[in-house]
Amino acid sequence: MITAHSARLPAPPWPDPTGLLRLRVRHPAPGTAVVEVAGEVDLATAPRLAEVVESRLRSTVSLVIVDLRQTTFLGVAGLRTLIRLSLLAAGADTDFYVDPGTAPTVRRLLALFPLSCARPGAAEGLTEIPLPRPAERP
Fold first, then answer.
1. Average pLDDT over all residues of the chain
2. Which residue, of 31, 54, 91, 130, is most buried by count of CB atoms within 10 Å of its CB?
């Protein structure tokens, strides 16, 4: 259900109401969207991340990369959001990858709960090179 509040998207970069998350979307190649995440992804901010990425999954792009390189904290709510977005992307036949970056809190959570869509370096210039789908990995 779309409410009047969620239908209005502010101009990028999109801060969340708590001020703990900044999102920026860039299109480095045709059909590619990179969602840059800076700050904290937790119970309060994960819905905003989901909203921005879902809008890209509903668009005409064929590749969405969530760039967590500037993320300072990834909580379980953020991890659940990334898993759900991965499933939505599969249903939409859109390639979906997460670049985990090097933040210790992000790497620690992903070490405990690995994501099949995690691709270190995906946001660093690999957006123009076709990445293998998760099922096609060796």
1. 82
2. 54
101-135 burial, b for 16+ CB within 10 Å, e for fewer? bebeebbebbeeeebebbbbebbeebbeeebeebe
How many Cβ atoms from other residues are within 10 Å of residue 10's Cβ?
A: 7
What span, in angstroms and rounded, lies between the C-alpha atoms of 103 and 106?
5
Q: Using one digit for the tens of pLDDT, what is the confidence trace for 109-126? A: 999 999 999 998 888 865
Nearest CA to 69 among 38, 34, 48, 41? 38
Stated pTM of the model: 0.78
Q: pLDDT by residue (tens digit) across 84-97?
A: 999 999 999 999 99
Give the neighbor-by-neighbor strand order of the sheet with 21-26.
14-15, 21-26, 32-41, 63-74, 95-99
3-state secondary structure of 104: helix
Q: Which helix (H) or strand (E) holds 82?
A: helix 76-91
Cα 60 from Cα 66, distance rounded (Å): 17
